Amino acid sequence: MPRKGSRAPSLHGKIWGDIANSTPGFPYVIAITETVIAIFIIIGLFTKLTSLAGIVFSFLIWSTVEAFSGVFTQGGMDIGTAPLYMAMFAGLIVVRAGMQRGLDRRILRRYPCLSLLL
Fold this sequence. Notes:
The protein is an all-alpha fold. The protein has helices spanning 11-22, 26-43, 47-71, 82-94, 98-101, 103-110.
């Protein structure tokens, strides 16, 4: 039973806590995913596919860790940064960022069949 004045963990927060505690490599998977997305965006490799992965990853982080344990609690006002990241990734898709100075342009010249991924 929680102490007076403290907030009891929600069922959703408990589920994610159990996943993180039962899987020792879970933080490493998150860190590697973020790093791969960052590197691919910086060098402009598979920008469209990477941006879609970034949108999904940001939504998963926002909908599980940030939103359900923060903004939806009493007095919570901060929605976090993930919605901004999702908008940024969508903007990269719209402006075809990898075609400007990234590797996508070079790959597309050599392999036109990959146009859906680039």
